[in-house]
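Data availability excerpt. The first of two example chains:
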Amino acid sequence: MRRNFLCLVAAGIFISLATLALPVSVRAQSDGEKLFSARCTLCHAADGSGSSPTGKALKAKDLKSDEVQKASDEDLTTIITNGKGKMPAFGKKLKPEEIQALVVYVRTLAKK
């Protein structure tokens, strides 16, 4: 019985370590997707194309475009933080790690 308990404890520790070993980008992606859905889809549409009615009216960038995808992570972080053109600034509304999660998620849009 003690042996079974030790096996369960070892398995629990292994699963915990395996979860922590996942790349930050994989864990952040789900957070980024949730943030994108809550904060960005109004203008950029769910697929990032900017094809929502609001996005069309504001001429929102297609986040899947080469122009956006070729921008550096630092540039995207700055734009999300400070805003640009008609895009509002999110630096006071989001934590730096949330903004980073959005950058990671925007990178995945080109692959969809």
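And the second chain:
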Amino acid sequence: MAKGQKKKVAPGDVATNRQARHRYELLDKLECGVVLQGTEVKALRQGSAQIKDAYAQVRDGELWLHNCHIPPYGPAARENHEPERPRKLLAHRREIERLAAKQHERGLTIVPTRIYFSGSRAKVEIALAKGKDRFDKREAIKERETKRDMQRALREANRY
């Protein structure tokens, strides 16, 4: 892959949080709409957003996305948006209450895993996540490397 290009998981993705799988064990995923201003939508269509350090939080019965960086849209010089403002996520009340209950009872966190367009609407996929310990990360890396070695050995055996 060329330097400077981001690896996308799906063709319609605007941004993906590849660090989330490394830092957390993802338990439950949910698709949410997001309330955006006009210049934010245009900036997203250009494919520029960063959700590496972003998280979601339930506050007053509403779901909010924090630390999501959507850079200013160049042509809209004066009427631009604030890059890291909190953005409201749209989900059903029951889903929000369920997420809030699980988050408080088990000490879990809500992280965005990707931002994408579904038709003309911007969507955010969030996941209920449990933080990994350093030991868990090492174990996951070891498993991945053994799988890779096994696949490589099978390919070599099938080659001859």
